[in-house]
Amino acid sequence: METRVDVELYGAQTGNCIRAAIALEEAGVRYAVRHVDLARGEQRQASFRALNPAGKVPVLVDRNDADAPLVLSQSNAIVLYAAEQSPGSLLPADDPAQRAVAFERFFFFVTDVIAPGHAAFYLKHKRMPEAAAALESRAAHRLAEAERFLERSPFVAGDRFTIADIAAFTIVNAMSATLGEPVLPNLARWLRDVAARPAVARGYRAFATDPA
Ligand SMILES: N[C@@H](CCC(=O)N[C@@H](CS)C(=O)NCC(=O)O)C(=O)O
């Protein structure tokens, strides 16, 4: 008999969705993938808007409490949800200082790198190449600052893998062509190590439609 999965992740093969899937994988949350075809506009259909009126992926649905299912949008809220499902797995539970640094680095990547990176993508799409290039360059400069996080640590917030590494992974991976290994050797080494984690590899492929 098939076991029921109470958590579903709606999404597509995009950085935001992959980040959410990696967090669920790393926290050991069992979930079912629900593909949303963005090219066909499924995110704008009424059935999907009933989950997220903004018409955006990812969306997580947790039916563990049958009376009050949790419907969560925002990839980074899903990352924090995953961390809470498995205390200690993605945020140090026993060291308040390390935990605070994990939050600091998490928000560094979310607000200082991912946000301008996404805004640049939007401006490119709107055919505003100069404005897009300015934001891309800002995101790249901020990202280069992360090189120092890795000078003496294997992970971006210290000696443990945390939510900060998950926030960093998708954007560093997307920008890796412009990073340049000799210029940012620590980030290049970290990217290889994180990509090799089995849970990260599974999350990365969660929405891939072609076989691995
Ligand atoms: N801040 C949101 C952004 C969500 C978002 O922009 N999702 C994109 C895919 S990465 C989307 O659904 N695009 C489809 C559309 O806008 O029609 C998050 O982190 O989840």
Structure description:
By secondary structure, this protein is an alpha+beta fold. The protein folds into 2 domains: 7-89, Glutaredoxin (3-Layer(aba) Sandwich); 96-197, Glutathione S-transferase Yfyf (Class Pi), Chain A, domain 2, CATH 1.20.1050. It contains 8 helices and 4 strands; from the N terminus they run E-H-E-H-E-E-H-H-H-H-H-H. It has helices at 15-27, 46-49, 75-85, 96-125, 129-145, 163-179, 185-195, 198-205, and strands at 7-11, 32-35, 59-62, 70-73. The protein has a 4-stranded mixed beta sheet, covered by helices on one side. Helix 1 packs across helix 8 and helix 4 (96-125) crosses helix 6. It starts with 6 loop residues before the first strand and ends in a 7-residue tail after the last helix. The mean pLDDT is 93. Bound molecules: glutathione (GSH). Glutathione binds next to helix 3.
